[in-house]
Structure formats: C-alpha cells, structure tokens
Amino acid sequence: METKKIYVLLQGYQCLFGDVYKRLKGTQYNHASLGIVDSMDEFYSFRSKWGLCIEHPFRFNKPYKKDVQCMIYEIEVTSQQYSEIQETIQSYLNQREHFHFSYTSLLLGFLGIRHNFKQGYTCSKFVAEVLEKSGVMSIGKHTSLCLPTDFENTLTLTHYEGLARNYKSSLDY
Questions:
Q1: Cβ contacts of residue 45 below 8 Å, gap of 6+?
Q2: Tens digit of pLDDT for each residue in 86-141?
Q3: Domains in the chain and their CATH numbers?
Q4: Whose CA is closest to 37, among 6, 3, 72, 73?
Q5: pLDDT tens string 29-53
Q6: Number of H helices, E strands in the chain
Q7: Virtual CA dihedral for 1, 154, 121, 127, nearest 10 degrees?
Q8: Distance CA 141, CA 145 (A)
C-alpha cells in the first residue's frame, strides 16, 4: 500500500498571549499548522489576523520569523487519507469567508470548556479536525479543547526541532 507523509508544525511565537500560554502550559510552542507537501513550503492554519491562511514558515519575509522555535512532526498516511486531507483543506479554502479565528474558542479551549462553534476556529482545533475527519488520528478529546501541547503529547516522529532559520528544506531561496 502506497503511503504519503504529512506534517504538523508547532511554532513558538513571541507575543503576549503566546508568552502567557507557554508559561502556563510549560511548552515552547503556541501555534499549530498542517503541511501536506514535502517541500515544507505551505502549511494551513488559522491565525488571529487572517482566519484560515496558507503559511510559509520558512520564507523569511519578516526578520522575526527566523528566530521562531519550531517542532515538525511527521505522520505517515495512506493515499486515501491523504486525498481526504486534501479535499477537506480545499473545502475549507473554498468557503474561507465563512470561517474566522475565534478568541472565544481559544479562551474556552484553554479553560477546558467544550464548545461547538461551527465557524470559529483556533489553529489547533483546525489541525485536529482535519486529522480526525480524514481518519488519520484523534487527539483523544473534543477538537474544541485541542491545544498545541496536545500534538506534543500525542505525536512521536520528530522530523525537525530547532529555530526556523536552521531548517534546511528542499526549497531554494
């Protein structure tokens, strides 16, 4: 059976909420995104300013991006799961205007209060939901409660850990 690889990228951004989150949760990482191409050029996630977005974490168009601490986990999936992930992400992208980043969801998830906002997402809820819908894995709790630390505690195959500037991808910049 043919398999493919996908990636969960955790990043530790320096910001007020990020610093509070990292201290309270005892982790370096406060953001999660999902990559489905080996080039590591595109990751999908939700951000407070843009909602659903395509991220390019190893393109350093802003100086601070070079110093972001990263952890990349590798997950092997079947061709069928990979296709389902692609379709799910495309479905979100096609309806992008209906979704938004939800601070309320972020707060409720952090407090451990299960909720069901159909259009409000956080980065980790999005990644967990895509992985769950495609049958790749479940974090073991409702996706609204998923935090970046849950991926640290669940995933095991580390592809990379370190500063973004030190990551050597297959892209030529």
A1: 31, 32, 33, 34, 52, 53, 55, 123, 126, 127
A2: 999 999 999 999 999 998 998 898 899 999 998 999 999 999 999 999 999 999 99
A3: 3-166 (3.90.1720.10)
A4: 6
A5: 999 999 998 888 899 999 988 899 9
A6: 5, 8
A7: -20
A8: 7
